Amino acid sequence: MSPRLTNILAASSLAIVLLTFELGGISPANAFFYAGAVLTFYTAYQFLRHDGATLQDAAKAIFVRPAGGGQKMRTYVTYVSCTVVGIFVAVQAISTSI
Q: pTM, whole model, 2 decimals?
C-alpha cells in the first residue's frame, strides 16, 4: 500500500471517529477503542516502512522530524496530526466516562 493512501485512510478514519463521537453516534468506549486501533495500526505501518533499520533509527524517523522533504515530511505531519486527534478523542472519551 502506498504511503499516500495510508495517510489518507488514517486521517479520514480518525476524522470519522472524532465526528461520530462528537455528534453522539458512538459511545465513549467505542471511540476510545477505534482511535486506539487506528493509531496502533498506523504506527505499526510506519515501523514496517522502516524495515531493515534498527529500532532506534526507525523510531527517530517516525517520532522525530525526519531528515528530508517531500513524502517523508507529509507522512510525518500526518502522523503527528493523527496522534494529536487520537489523544484528543481518548482524553474526551475518558473524561466523559468518569
A: 0.86
